[in-house]
Every structure is written in structure tokens, then in C-alpha cells.
Amino acid sequence: MFVPRAARLLSLTALLPHWADDMIDALLGTDAIAQDAEAAVRGPYETELRDRGTT
User: Fold this and answer.
1) DSSP string, 23-44
2) Do residues 21 and 28 lie in contact, with contact meaning Cβ atoms separated by under 8 Å?
3) Most Cβ neighbours (<10 Å): which of 3, 5, 16, 21?
4) What pLDDT, on the 0 to 100 scale, is given for residue 32?
5) Is the dihedral of CA 3, 55, 10, 44 positive or negative?
6) How far apart, in whole angstroms, are the C-alpha atoms of residue 28 and residue 22?
7) 38-46 contacts at long range (C-beta below 8 A, 24 or more positions apart)
8) Average pLDDT across the chain, whole number
9) Are 47 and 39 a contacting pair, CB within 8 Å?
10) CA 23, CA 31: separation in Å to the nearest integer?
């Protein structure tokens, strides 16, 4: 699985205050990515995660 370098930045946001994390999410558009996910496509993936106990 490929993880873009930008993902490293997202993992560092856990160390920031909540307002700073929100600002970075807004700048990167991460909320839009999650909202645009198609339920029909994402459904089987989420079911598999639940079955594995990773959610």
C-alpha cells in the first residue's frame, strides 16, 4: 500500500491543539475527501475493517 508523504504531516497533527488541526484539515481539504467518499464503494471496505476488529 502506498502512503503519500503528506500523510506524515497528518500524523503530526495529533500533537497540535485542536484549532490548529482543524486549520490544517481545512487547508488540505481532508474533510471534503471524507464527505465525497461513495458509500457504495466504501461500504465493503468498512465492513472488512469491522470484521477484522480494526475500527
Assistant:
1) HHHHHHTHHHHHHT--HHHHHH
2) no
3) 21
4) 73
5) positive
6) 10
7) none
8) 76
9) no
10) 11
Spatial CB neighbours of 13, under 8 Å, sequence gap ≥ 6? 20, 21, 24, 25
- The helix/strand/coil state of 45 is helix
Question: For residues 30 and 38, is the Cβ–Cβ distance under 8 A?
Answer: no
The residue behind cell 475500527 is 55
> How do residues 5-45 score in pLDDT, each as one tens digit?
666 666 677 788 989 888 888 888 777 776 667 777 878 88
d(CA 22, CA 25): 5
